[in-house]
Fold these 2 entries.
Entry 1:
Amino acid sequence: MSARPLNRILVVDDEPDILAVVRTTLRARGDFEVEVCVCGQDALEVAPRFAPDLILLDVMMPGIDGPMTLKALQADPRTSSTPVVFMTAKVMPQETARYLSLGAVAVIAKPFDQRTLVDEIEVIWGGRVSTRSAWTHNPEMEALLEAYAATLPAKVDEIARAWRAVEDAGGTAELAQKVHSLVHRLAGTAATYGYSTLGNAASQLEEAVKTYLRTGAQLTCERRQRMGSLIDALVETSGKPDPKSGS
C-alpha cells in the first residue's frame, strides 16, 4: 500500500464521539482530507464519490454492520480495491482472523490512543504518511476533550435512570437492552477520550447487563446489588480522567 500516498480517509462509525475524535486526531497529526459517515449505508453512497485511499470502518453498527458494508464495497468496482481497516473492541485472535479473512487489511482495537492512532495507520499503510512531527493538544482537540468531559455526568445519569426503569418494571429485556446500548457506547468512547478507569467500569457493567440478558432477565436480589455496585462505580469514576490525558 505504501506505493501510493495516503491523502483521503473515510471514517465510518455510528458513535458521534468516535467520529469527532478520529476526525480531529487525523487533522491534528496529518495533512489528511477526512470524510465521516454515521452508518454503512451512508458509506456506500459517499465512498464512490469521495474516492478515499483508506476506509476506517466500525464493526458493530445498526442496520448494515461493518462486515456487510465491506462486502458491498468489495462488490462495487469503484471501491473494490480500497483498503479497509476495521475498528472494534472485539479483537480476540479468532475475531481478528475472521475480519482479515473477510478482506480487511488490518484491525485497530477500540479503545485506541488518540495520540498514537496516526502512528498505527502509518504502520498499516507500510510507510511514512504525511504527518506532523509530534502529537500536540491543538485547540480543536482541547475543546473536544472539554466538551466530552462536560457530557459525562449526563451520560452516566442516563444509564443509572435506565437501569432504575428496569428495576421499577420488575426486570424486562426490552428496557435492559436500552441500558446495554447506552453503556456500550460509553465503554467504547471513554478510554479513547482519556477516561480509561471509567471505560473499564463501563465495560464491567456492559458484561453484567449482557449476562443478565443471556440468563433470561431474572432480577434477583443478588443481581440488584451487583448492578447497583457497578453503577455506583460508574458514577464515582465519571469525573476522573487518566493522568496521561492532560485533561
Entry 2:
Amino acid sequence: MTGMRILFAGSAADYRNATGGEGCLQAPFLFFCTVDAGDQLNSDVDIQLVPYRQYFVRMADTPVPPATCPILVSGPSNAMAEALACGCADYLVEPWSDDELLARAGRCACFALAGQEISFHGLQVRGPGGEKILGPDEAYLLRLLLANRRSGISRQHLASLLRLPEGGRAIDMRISRLRRYLQAISRNLSPGWLRSRRGVYCLTSSID
C-alpha cells in the first residue's frame, strides 16, 4: 500500500459521515475534492472514491466519460447492484472503516496479466519477473486502460487525457514503452494483452 493515493469526491465531513464518524485517514493516502473530479483528476491519483448519487449522475452523461482511474463507490446496500452494473471497481456499504477502504483499494491496485499477478500503484509495477518504475505517461496510460477495461478507451480520449496529438506516433510510442515495461516484470508475456480495434484500445481477456 506504500504510495497509494485515494481521492475522495467530497469533503472531510462527508468522509467522516460515510464511516459513521470513525474515519481518520488523511494524506499522504487520502485527498479531498469537493467538486466532481470526473475529468479533472490528477494523473497521480490511484483510486477515486465517489458517493453513489454523484456516481449515478456521472454515469447518466451521454456519452459516459472515460474513467481516469479505478472508481470505488460508497453508499447504502440497496444501491450496490446498480453501481456494480455501471462498472465501478468495487462498492463500499456505509458505514465502512478506514481499514476496509485501504483493503478494497489495495485489491484494485492488483490485476492478472495472462495468469500472472501484477501490482500497480503510483509509478511502480511489480510482477513475478521483478519491478519497474514507469514514466508518468506510461503509468497514466496503464491506469486509463485498467479503469476502462470493460469498454476500452478511444485513441481520441487517450490523446486528450495524455495531452498528446491524436495523429502521429506519440501515443504508439508510449504504448510500446508500456509493453516493454510489463514484459520485463512478467514471464513469457504475449504482446496480445492489449489490442486496438477501430481506434479503441482494450485490454484482452488475458487480463481478469
